[in-house]
Amino acid sequence: MPITYSPFNESLWKDPWPTYKSMRESDPVYYIEEFDAWALSRFEDIWQVSLDKTRFTATQGTSPEALLLDPNSPPKTFLFMDPPHHRKHRNMIGDRYTPAAVGTLEEEIRATTRRALAPYLTTGSLNVNALVSSVALQTIADYIGLEMDEITYIRSLIDTYYTREAGHKGTTASGMRAFEEAAAFIHQLIGKYRDQPPAQNSHIYTWLNSAIDDAQMTDDEIFFSIFALVITGSDTLPLTVAATLYYLSLNEADMQAVRDNNALIPNAFAEAARIDQPTNILGRVLSEDVEMHGKTMKKGQPVLFLYASANRDEREFENPEQFQLHRKSRRSLSFGAGQHFCLGQHLARLEGKVILEELFSQLGDFEVHRDQSKRIFGEFLQGYCYLPISFKPLP
Ligand code: HEM
Known about the structure:
Radius of gyration: 21 Å
Number of helices: 17
Strand order of the largest sheet: 1-2-10-7-3
Helix content: 40-55%
Shape: globular
Number of domains: 1
CATH architecture: Orthogonal Bundle
Bound molecules: protoporphyrin IX containing FE
Number of strands: 14
Strand content: 5-15%
Largest sheet: 5 strands, mixed
């Protein structure tokens, strides 16, 4: 049967796996006629393209919407830069994300988690995504230099910006209004932080006070850097922690093994990020013609990386459709690869580990309500966006 694939096909959002499998098997370099673009679905292909520093550019955006629907150039931030600018801009804040720097935050993240968890302990139930989101927001707010009420407001606008409507491709009119409101609000904050500088180790302080090649960052560049860090710092962690509990709950022995031995948590988290990768699709634009599997992709055409498909590629992973708690993966695309690999990967792993440790130690035997869970409705991210659990409340 011929494959028909579009990232905006709503019927795929709930269960993309059979289509991804067919694409990997019979059409790994898939031409999307409607957008004159390509979709790569195999692990090795996306891995190689991610390592290619010259023939693919991020300067025209990386999300499916930016690549396929939006003719405007994306804002200037390192996420949408190529070498050598990319490295210089990323390095402005990169030293705060090294394993050593992140490691110093463990107790702070644990204290944040305990504060977030406390109000639920007497109620007997919670939504995993809401809990993790509040920890992720507090953590990235401290990195950026924002107050909690400021980041919570920005996050609520981002949620509207991401809300998709059936039958409409990409951002809705109310989503666009939310984006404009976020832009106006963040511009106002930048003005405030020029007068009352935030902590010296915060990103805002760095962005306001450093120059690259003698050029200061403009307010617009600082705005979008803040916006992008709020998104990347808080979108994917709740999905991955929810996926970890969802997949562990499928097998009582797995759940018990992790309960008995918390040292297994990092592997459970990594396996959840593999089997249900939240960054479903990102991509680049070709800066040269490239041939792959007998097809010629032309300069200027967008190329989508179907990350979530790659992480279930049977050429890379044995029994990829199975959640295997003890899996030892040789490579992973869960955090990308090459120059744009995830800046926050060590932070995300630490946050995931601490939050899961706290859930196991504080809630006792909790039940995961998979039947009430919900998956995201949209083209860019995927996974469980609502996962309730219940437990015996404290008296
Ligand atoms: C489990 C959680 C996470 C997952 C699965 C994840 C995944 C990814 C992936 C796949 C990319 C590559 C994007 C591309 O190909 O263009 C990426 C990039 C990025 N991630 Fe994450 N991420 C996570 C958490 C975080 C956190 C907590 C932060 C906090 C700062 C973060 C910040 C970033 C940034 C800034 C980039 C862009 C890097 C660049 O363009 O140089 N991520 N992430």
